[in-house]
Amino acid sequence: MHVDVNSAFLSWSAVQRLKDGDKTDLRMIPSAVGGDEKQRKGIILAKSIPAKKMGVQTGEAIWQAKQKCPGLVVVPGNYDLYSHMSNLFMAVARDYSPVIQQYSIDECFIDYTGMEGVMGPCEQAADRLRQAIRDRLGFTVSVGVSSCKVLAKMAGELKKPDAVSTVYRYELADKLWPLPVRELFMVGPATERRLHSLGIFDIGGIARADPALLQRHMGKHGVLIWNYANGVDPDPVVPGDDVPMKSYSQSATLPRDMRGPEELLPVFARLCTALGYRMRDGGGCCRVVSIYFRDKVFRGWGRQKRLERATDITFELMRALTDLFWRTYDGSDIRAVGVAFSDIIPSECFSFSLFDGESIRRKSALDAACDRMRDRYGGRAVLTARELLSPEFAHLSRYAPGTEKPRIFCPY
Questions:
Q1: What number is the average pLDDT over the span 68-79?
Q2: What's the gap between Cα 172 and its chain centre?
Q3: How far apart are CA 407 and CA 230, in angstroms?
Q4: Residues 137, 86: contact at Cβ < 8 Å?
């Protein structure tokens, strides 16, 4: 089974507001969960069905959504609430199988193999699960049932909200193949354009295509979507604690447009420090670092770099990001930035050369000490010198706003 909460953030906000005595159910009116417009994070994170019918889309700016829907009610996000509701949701799902993989905060895969003798046929169990979540927690889910993960996920998209759907391999020709290619999992806009250029417009066209042709034009991704279109997905349901992280990423929308290394590099230092801490906490180190920019007209671009050796050391990561910054930044006014560490391997595979071993050990020990302080006193207990120049921590500087900022030389 694939279980997906319908409009999760909005549904969870609505449930909590009703518990707090609000008489209006956000799900029944044009409403949305949005970011903070004052902090320029004013985008739609989730919307109600009435808002969707009026053209409101997830990811668009709040002012654009209000133009389409003048009476739109926008409520702020509450991530502590979402985490709590997600835990409740997963607890109910675990009543139906011990093998559950949390796919995101609002969806999971359930391996029902062998549970039929205890819980009954899979479709019936899926319907009981749907009703249990609605009755006990107050929000609805859509459940997809199939013989593999990709088909179960796509089955859940066929009928929403509050529904159970199936897509088995013998149902592919009727239920999936007539759909446009963009409806296939892992087919984005770029892949859709490439498929159209090959004369393929529906999922059935992918399934019937020569996989060698798709591989020639799209590489391994072409073979992947050919398998998905034919209902082939050997990926097992892996319990959440056993799923290795494949990448770590974090982005920041800046409180104002920023320009130049003096303003932008402190922000990258903050993101690098936070991601490095998360990666070390997860027991990994990375071989690829990436950097991303979005300017004031929402043009986005980025670059990545493969490291000579995998690392989890803040100094090494920041040095690589600084190099990427100078090779990528074009002098524009920047609205948002992002950092990603990928190609993650276990930290046990960390290696260093004969000549820099002592230096690496010292830097690793420094990171370990800083991490222990963050664990005990919070994520902002330890800052690098460069981070102090970031607007986020301007209040910590003894230099008054408007005065010349000190030049702080720091390897980070």
A1: 90
A2: 29
A3: 60
A4: no
Residue 206 has pLDDT above 60, yes or no: yes
The amino acid at 236: P
Asked if residues 284 and 312 have their Cβ atoms less than 8 Å apart, the reply is yes
**Is the CB of residue 291 less than 8 Å from the CB of residue 321?**
yes
Compute the chain's Rg from CA coordinates: 24
In three-state secondary structure terms, 342 is strand
Beta strand 163-166 pairing with 141-145: parallel
Active site residues: 107
Lowest model confidence (mean pLDDT) among 131-135, 303-307, 405-409: 405-409
User: What was the pLDDT predicted at 346?
Assistant: 82
Joined together, the tokens standing for residue 402 give 């408007």
Distance CA 126, CA 299 (A): 43
Rounded CA-CA distance 239/35 in Å is: 32
In the prediction, which pLDDT does 47 show?
92
pLDDT > 70 in the chain, percent: 88
412 contacts 386 by C-beta, under 8 angstroms: yes
User: What are the distances in angstroms from CA 266 to CA 144, 339, 357?
Assistant: 45, 13, 28
Helix, strand or coil for residue 239?
coil
More confident position, 123 or 283? 123
pTM for the whole thing? 0.69
Task: Quote the pLDDT of residue 412.
Answer: 44
∠ CA 39-64-35 to the nearest 5 degrees?
A: 30
Structure letter (DSSP) for residue 152: H
Tokens found for residue 20: 């707090």
Phi-psi region of 331 (alpha: psi -120 to 50; beta: other; left: phi over 0): left
Q: What is the Cα–Cα distance from 135 to 380, expressed in whole angstroms?
A: 41
Residue 302, classed as helix, strand or coil, is strand
Nearest Cα neighbor of 8 from 132, 126, 108, 152 is: 108
Q: Sign of dihedral through CA atoms 310, 103, 282, 340?
A: positive
Query: Token digits for 141?
Result: 């889910």
* Residue 309 scores a pLDDT above 90: no
Crossing angle of helices 79-93/122-137, nearest 10°?
140
- Ranking 57-61, 201-205, 225-229, 244-248 by mean pLDDT, the lowest is 244-248
Contact 342, 245 (CB under 8 A): no
pLDDT higher than threshold 50 for residue 397: no
Question: At residue 232, does pLDDT exceed 80?
Answer: yes
In 3D space, the residue among 153, 3, 152 whose CA is nearest the CA of residue 89 turns out to be 3
